[in-house]
Amino acid sequence: MNTKAAVPGTVPPAGTAVPASTVSPLLWVPTGYFTMALAYVMLTSVTAIMFKNLGMDNGRAAEYASYLIFAYTVKPLFAPFVEMYRTKKFFVLCAQLAIGVGFGCVALAMSLPGYMAIMVGLFIVLSFVGATQDIASDGVYVTALDSRKQSLYCGIQSLSWNVGPIVASGGLVYLSGWLHTNVFGHDANTFGPEWIDSWRIVFFIVAGITLVMAVWHMRTMPDGAKAENAPTSPREALHILWDSFVTFFQKRDVWLMVGFAFLFRLSIGLLEKIGPFFMVDPVAKGGLGLSNELLGIVYGTYGLVAVLVGSLLGGLFVAKRGLKPTLFLLCCAVNIPNATFLLMAMYQPTDLVVISAGVAIEKFFYGFGSVGFMIYLMQQLAPGKYSTTHYAFGTGLMGLCMLVTGTVSGHLQQWMGYVDYFWFVMAATIPSFLVTWFAPFHHKEG
């Protein structure tokens, strides 16, 4: 038997059981949240670009990718059942192994006749597995760390999650375009089955990363603990879920808060899938004609870094000024800069600096203002008997908005054209302003 004690901040020898208290959270918090984000972004965002590359029209590409948000929207409904069985680490590892194998199967399926239907079916299954990974990973974080360590590692958690979109929407989208033109010798401006070769490699890479993370977390991640008042049977889990719904709708001015949670990001939902399509569509179709490489750099790297910087500054702004006096200003920050896409659609700039600036401005202010949305859910919507579940309901409503708007956005854009569609996006900011103006504040700010 190996009697060597595990040292905090080091990887224990293979096969050694390590108590949670001896393992530094730096070994599993960053990698855990990066792996969560990688799966989520690949399924809900990068797939839209892939569908577009493979020759789908904007309507179907946005619609199919938006369906994959559904599992993440309804995950509060099956979260209590994950709490009942085995350990949270067990579910994390099972989910990551399944995601790794699943993306590998997607890559292999791209060689088969009728691959598109098989691929979409696999993506739907993977979205539910990914949502389970999120539930279990959050559970490990909350139950394995005390309140002081949760606060201490919160910034690392958030930063690590944001690395996922940069790798997926930035690096891997860039790689797909580079492989398509430089390795396989295809025309970057032609969409169709020729893109299968490069995307197959991307999915194998995602599969490999996820499987490596599963092995890493097998050695470094603590088991997590049962949450207080965790259900012990399916009947009890259903009772808790039902009681959480009842108490949620008993909250004072709940429908105003529901409207806020659903509509605050309405215009963003309409922009989310169409923004990248606008970047890669040919100039003749009203787009900017960028390659996947440039899309990965401009939209997936500069844009996401701008979101991260905006989020950090937005958090500092709210901490200094308070949420109630700044919430409407934060709503303006989220919605008004959408006009940069309208201006780019009208003038179709070719200068990469101008395009990058337009994307970075919109993304920076989106990150800055979205902080207010999350804090409002935490401080005004969530408080009560089931604060964690009610917060999940709020984020679920936001996810439902992304699902609905994403499903229709591509079809609307095809019907209206880019200029008129982006005018429509600006008109869609009005409900966001209204629900923010009337959003109730019944709890003191934390």
Automatic annotation (TrEMBL):
InterPro entries: AmpG_permease/AT-1, MFS, MFS_trans_sf. Its main location: membrane. GO terms for cellular component: membrane. The chain crosses the membrane at residues 33-51, 90-109, 115-137, 158-179, 199-216, 254-274, 294-319, 326-347, 353-378, 390-409, 421-441. Keywords: Membrane, Transmembrane, Transmembrane helix, Transport. It is a multi-pass membrane protein. It is found in: Membrane. The keyword Transport applies. It holds the Pfam family MFS_1. PANTHER family: MAJOR FACILITATOR SUPERFAMILY DOMAIN-CONTAINING PROTEIN 3, SOLUTE CARRIER FAMILY 33 ACETYL-COA TRANSPORTER -RELATED. This is MFS transporter. It comes from Pseudoduganella albidiflava.
